[in-house]
Please model this.
Amino acid sequence: MKNKKRSYLDSVHLYGSIWCIAALFVMLLVPTLMCLHLGVWPDGSVVAKAFFSIAILFYPTAVVEVVAYGPLLGAGGTYLSFLTGNIANLKLPCALNSMENAKVRANSEEGEIISTISIATSAIVTTVIIAVFVMIFAFNPSFTSLMQSETLAPAFKQVTYTIFGALAATYFAKHWKISILPIAAVSLILVFAGSMQIGVLLVIGVVVSLLGAHLMYKLKWV
Amino acid sequence: MFQDFKSDGFMFCIAIGVLLFVVAQSVFFLLRAIKRGKQIGITGDQIKGTIASSALFSIAPAISIAVTVLVLSVALGYVLPWIRLSVIGAIQYEVPAAEAAIEAAGLSGGIGVDVSDPKVFTAVAWVMSLGCILPLILIPLFLKKIQGKISGTMNKNTKWADLMSAAAFIGIIAAFLGRGIAGTGEQTVLESGEKINAVIGDGAGVLSLTAIVCSIVFMLLLVFINKKLQWKWLESFAMPLAMILSMVVIVLLNTYAPSLAAIEWRY
Model:
């Protein structure tokens, strides 16, 4: 049984790495094909200037995301999430909800399987829905106006809050003692730096939460 | 419609190719996980329940992502934002990446301006693509080692392991909820120096707080109903239902009390 588990996990890492390299190739192929099709290449200094300004922000966050999400998502879930994107606002909550429903632990093989099934399903459904909506936007301007209307547009900005509110109900009820510190810390920081990027906030939230939980665990408060 | 170089037939073909790649890798991992799940005793009902609840869970966020494509389409057409938000990308990264590239090219107005110069457009495409590829390099190099070390720690002390997983996720929840409670949105600075709300609904205010409170209340209510009535099906669908019901409340609030809904204390 143990050998089978190892071989499944090893194969996930092997195929995951192959898909990552293929995705890297695809990611670089897309702008290359656009340049060839349009017959123009961008100004290198413009690309470098913009790239460095966002890399300073995104790249450290990417390192933290790999370390923070990996243990929660499992191997297959991590490869698939990082390949398909929208992790914090969709794939991670979706996988955790599925593991909670199936009553499996994040770091068990059962958790690994449920997480992968959940994220793969989410990725397919999301890809199809976005494609359908883009086609409707492109062919039906009146629908586009409806989606951008004053009634619907502000509502769609709240989807992330509905996801994390529903998850908070589950997690905070079970772990209310370790929840107070990270919420207080993040809210306090936002009072003074309200426009702080979500990537930086995620790092602060996770680090504060882990430190607080570790301290409470050592003090036997939890 | 395809006369615009940003959304012509060739561009759509690139997008379809990328989408097929995304779906292919998802199907690949899905089939392997289902096969392995059956081998280790995960029931067909558990698999079906996971697929159904994950599909329902993804609908509202997917529409929200599609709306972001629409927002970015003003500057970049449909295809580039569509590709970027379907593979690796995320809402919180693609908009700043596009804005940084547009500004570096000397255009003011950010993503609200129509990028009509193909040279600027290709610069944006490169910046958006390069800005998100680091995980594709890090994961094959380090994921196995990271998970190996963490599994070792977890197996030694399962109580701390469970607490650590919960604490990491609570940190993520805190970051997002914190933004809904005290995060600022986009502002416009008038000539007088006064700052006004540029986009309704993007800063902490009545709508964000309603979303948070409603989803918590609906979730607790659905969990309570599930416990009382023992409706097995509700267990899998409680979270997507709580999200959808909260969205309905937000749309109703925004429709029937727009002046109340527009209140933002951190615009």
Q: What stands out?
A: Chain A touches chain B through 160 residues (CB under 8 Å). Residues 70 and 78 of chain A are 6 Å apart (CA to CA).
